[in-house]
Recover the amino acids of this structure.
């Protein structure tokens, strides 16, 4: 039987029932015509009527009483107040502001402030191919929870990449998690207690602050320079505050795009060792580097450095999986914590799709093209922002962020609020700064800043703000 | 070009390189033949060589130096100690014991102690159909994080089901999460502080204890009877301990299979209101009931009851998504917490697949068949266990658990350890009991207890244990 005809017939039956309910010829609580009789009335097969009734029941318009047929729902659904429910609420410009605005605004809104690439820059062909293959996977992969550490083939792929960077690790020093953020969350739970002190870069990824606040720890910021954290301040803070953990990105730092030079990495590790501080290295932008730079985890050999990352920036943020590489005892404890708080590791279906894309031949080529594309976008966006008097703090070696200073010490929060009114989500400096010392900075995602409406609107917003 | 030939040619090139490395004609650090020259040598196209090199690079055997070709890895991967790394470690029989044994044991192990259905009992055909459709989804669905509350269509489907049970809720009173366990974890973070008191049923789902321990709260157990918690003890504990939260399953309680009668539900809610206690109702087994029973969330109207659930038991534990229904202010706070600790809601790809299966016509029929199949399995397993002197505490109305007493007060932990040595994972009573008062009980998953080897092995294990 041709699919489209069957589909049409099902829709016809659904429409007939909808009309009966709308015209009150079927009232709430009424029993629907029996499958057999309505099939005869409509001149379709009983299967078609069953399909139609089931769909209407899934919508909540009718309900199936087990063993006794279908009835019109007595409990009509309340009206959907979409706008009210779904639109990001007016709220203070804090770290959640950027998250909510960028995640919940609809597709018509432009998002130079967001933290991901446009969907058509992602390796969707390889992903679609992996999805088609997934439809033929065995039942166990589709149905079961999967192992507590996550897919072994994906952990092996990660180990191969770590080895390229000089990190020798074994499969039991790596675990997979649901998301990169969840990796960090598990580690915080494992290492920290309320009241502990954690050091972050100032500025740093805004969600670090939100996450650490959820752990009720004391947050201190170390000033970040174009060559990494200010080492004098770093060492002074270690002496004065004895932070238990330092959380950073060594390569393509978010939001600045800076990369840690080897000398800084070496000194920083020595200071950490002296003060028994643990370092969490979030390496989520690793694949965007033109050539790999030095990593704290590699210098340290996963002794006091824990490395985390995910595939959300390069592969898909919809099919999510994060990872943690750390010494084996810590991984054992983290696996227990993940079982307790998430029951098991990441989705086996997600890890299978990611493994297929990474192991396939096209991923490396895709990343090479992407790096070239981003280099062009960076140059183009630097030019356009320059015309507006907005200047980058440094020119990053890779990635998609530009950390920029606004002209005339304009307040980035005010600019972001004015831009939002024009349908543009920006990422104002102070959401990245624990000291609130970046009021005239703004983070731009170059891949989302190419739309010509952005330059025009920003020019107007800046003119009014002066 | 036919796929299989291309695949064979790629494999040939990979094998040729592997052999060169194994025979040391290519040593660590050596540059591989150029794409063009090796394509000529092998009589294949350059594309095939690129594909083969990329796959070898993904395996870690060779590495791509950006812009300069491929080299044999100098850092061979350490040997995979699979057995050591992957086998569940010998450890105390605590709540983690059952999780680790059931999640990490290989497929040859029989698992009457596990908490999920066999993969061929799941709606895999509908899932495969949804996966094939997913391959044609638009780029945004495949690439982006999705909204903070999760897919609106899936929330609407949930609202339709809630309405059938008499729960009137709006889309902003529902949020989707990564997993059912994560739903509970977010709520604990939102409501609890270390040192708070939480009441659970004794016995209850073993992971509740593990999760609450991660929150460093005081755990108290209320004795569970065939008609729900013992109300006298419940009220006495409320007076004496003033728990902030009570966590329970109202329908098809885990592990006992009991269902709360309306009178108990009503009294329990009144007592909770008097002591300003919040109730978390975990409704993960809802769809296994032959007819819906009364729900605390429905009586209470999402005032002090928070309802959680997931699709892991009926649809897939590999494609995971949980939900929370609660008053709107709480959902707002929980959404912020989920952004901070997970960056965004559940995987949009996962919620799309779940929506497709639930909205499709076949799901209701699948669940009806499943309930019949489980009823038969329950009868059969009750008979088999009876022959071993193992008797159910009650006969549940639905679901897949039987909570059973072992003969002669045998110690279930010892029996479980002995059974594990024979390749059978059991769930001994005390992992479910905060008071450790269920030492001669065992939870059986009837769907996994039909294998005839289980009766034989259990008979032997029990004989030796006497």
């Amino acid at each position: 039987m041709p699919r489209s005809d069957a589909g049409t017939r099902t829709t016809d039956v659904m429409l007939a029932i909808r009309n009966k309910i709308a015209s009150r010829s079927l009232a709430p609580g009424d029993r629907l015509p029996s499958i057999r009789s309505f099939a005869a009335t409509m001149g379709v097969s009983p299967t078609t009527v069953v399909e139609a009734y089931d769909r209407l029941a899934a919508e909540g318009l009718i309900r199936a009483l087990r063993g006794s047929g279908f009835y019109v729902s007595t409990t009509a659904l309340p009206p959907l107040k979409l706008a009210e429910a779904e639109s990001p609420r007016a709220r203070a410009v804090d770290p959640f502001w950027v998250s909510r605005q960028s995640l919940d605004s609809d597709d018509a809104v432009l998002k130079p402030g967001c933290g991901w690439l446009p969907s058509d820059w992602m390796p969707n062909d390889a992903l679609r191919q992996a999805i088609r293959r997934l439809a033929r996977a065995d039942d166990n992969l589709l149905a079961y929870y999967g192992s507590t550490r996550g897919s072994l083939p994906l952990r092996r792929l990660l180990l191969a990449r770590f080895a390229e960077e000089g990190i020798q690790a074994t499969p039991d020093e790596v675990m997979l998690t649901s998301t990169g953020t969840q990796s960090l969350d598990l580690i915080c739970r494992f290492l920290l207690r309320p009241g502990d002190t954690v050091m972050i870069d100032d500025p740093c990824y805004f969600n670090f602050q939100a996450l650490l606040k959820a752990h009720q720890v004391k947050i201190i910021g170390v000033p970040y320079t174009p060559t990494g954290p200010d080492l004098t301040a770093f060492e002074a803070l270690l002496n004065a505050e004895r932070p238990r953990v330092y959380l950073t990105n060594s390569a393509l730092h978010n939001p600045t795009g800076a990369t840690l030079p080897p000398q800084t990495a070496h000194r920083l590790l020595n200071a950490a060792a002296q003060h028994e501080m643990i370092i969490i290295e979030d390496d989520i932008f690793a694949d965007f580097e033109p050539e790999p730079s030095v990593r704290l985890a590699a210098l340290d050999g996963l002794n006091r450095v824990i490395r985390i990352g995910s595939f959300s920036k390069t592969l898909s943020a919809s099919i999510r999986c994060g990872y943690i590489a750390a010494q084996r005892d810590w991984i054992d404890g983290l696996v227990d914590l993940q079982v307790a708080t998430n029951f098991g590791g990441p989705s086996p279906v997600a890890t299978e799709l990611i493994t297929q894309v990474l192991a396939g031949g096209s991923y490396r080529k895709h990343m090479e093209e992407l790096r070239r594309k981003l280099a062009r976008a960076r140059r183009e966006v630097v030019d356009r922002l320059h015309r507006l008097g907005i200047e980058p703090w440094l020119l990053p070696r890779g990635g998609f962020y530009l950390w920029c200073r606004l002209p005339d010490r304009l307040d980035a929060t005010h600019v972001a609020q004015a831009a939002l009114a024009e349908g543009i989500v920006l990422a104002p400096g102070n959401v990245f700064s624990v000291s609130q010392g970046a009021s005239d900075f703004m983070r731009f995602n170059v891949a989302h800043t190419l739309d010509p409406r952005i330059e025009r609107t920003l020019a107007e917003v800046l003119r009014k703000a002066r």
In short: The CA atoms of residues 419 and 458 of chain B lie 7 Å apart. Chain B has three domains: 3-72, 84-122+364-465, 124-359. Chain B has 18 helices and 14 strands. The domain at 124-359 of chain B is CATH 3.40.640.10 (Aspartate Aminotransferase; domain 2).
